[in-house]
Amino acid sequence: MKQGSDGVKPRAADERAAGKPGCGASSCAACATAAGDGFGRAPCAAAPHPEQCRPELRRAAFSSPLPAVKHKLFVMSGKGGVGKSSVAVNVAAALALAGHKVGIVDADLHGPSVAGLLCSRAGVVGVDETSGKLLPAEFMPNLHFISMAAMLRDRDKAVIWRGPKKSAAVLRFIKGVEWGASDYLIIDSPPGTGDEHLTVLKAVPDILAVMVTTPQELSLADVRRALGFLKAAGGKILGLVENMSGLNCPHCGGDIRLFKKGGGRLLAEEYGIPFLGEIPLDPAAVLSADLGRPLTLDGGDGAAERAFAALAGEVDARCRAGVAVDFAARFLHCANGGCGV
Ligand SMILES: Nc1ncnc2c1ncn2[C@@H]1O[C@H](COP(=O)(O)OP(=O)(O)O)[C@@H](O)[C@H]1O
Ligand SMILES: [Mg+2]
Ligand SMILES: [Zn+2]
What we know:
Blueprint: H1 12-17, H2 29-36, H3 55-60, E1 69-76, H4 84-97, E2 102-106, H5 114-117, E3 126-127, E4 134-135, E5 137-140, E6 143-146, H6 163-175, E7 182-188, H7 195-203, E8 208-213, H8 217-233, E9 236-248, E10 255-256, H9 263-271, E11 275-281, H10 283-291, H11 303-321, H12 327-330
The structure holds adenosine-5'-diphosphate, magnesium ion and zinc ion.
């Protein structure tokens, strides 16, 4: 361990204040035990550094980097193509329509969809001369977004970046943008659980995950892995959404269960996570995506449109009530039997 200038080992609290969670001593018996559980924390009050046992204290060591943003949401799945970006954009648009000030961060650097879903040809990312911060592109006066696709001159160009560069870009999108006083910042994630996700969770410790899945086992399996990732990273979760949940046949009105139905709700029950709603498959969702105009702005009563609007209402109600599940704490299991969890 690094010695302080006075030759004394820095205390755990000093290290935490320096942004380093945990006691940082690889030789510490308690923390070595904790590291062994795969979640990097000492779970027991009997340990010499009990703060580590308490996620809320650990989190308190980091203050939010976006104090002017009331609610931060992280749309995740595990798998690509399940509707994360569609959920992010439609929920954002519905919230904006209801009068909230909303920002969207497109953290999917390799497959940025947000700009296209918001017909971004009109959207331009600028730079604030005085602060040097980026000014997000505007879709509506109270709905702004930042996306790689709105920054690249050649929109067809692939972004070929390794981890550190990607993390730096995601951080810049979050901290280096003039989001101002906002009600919601919604971060649309790439599939999987990689550098971008870790960066977001570390940079915005009070962010709440909205997990998106299709009812198909292939997607549910990835969501289980994503939940394991959240648990390991100490993330909080607002709830789970089942997208592509059945399809009303446009010809006869029959219920077609293309990707099955109900798997998301069962998974939410299994993990004790709030179930936020079902979005059916709807050709109107595909059309609106290609037009770059979120369904929820149209004020119609199509199946997906109503479901997205209901989802936004559910998200808003839960955020205001502050009813997120502290997922990490729920699944904290104590190796030493002292923390009572
Ligand atoms: N409820 C839905 N009904 C019909 N098509 C949908 C629905 N949700 C998403 N899609 C379509 O599925 C594709 C993948 O959605 P997208 O939001 O880009 O997923 P992800 O961000 O998870 O990769 C897009 O073509 C989108 O328009
Ligand atoms: Mg996407
Ligand atoms: Zn039919």
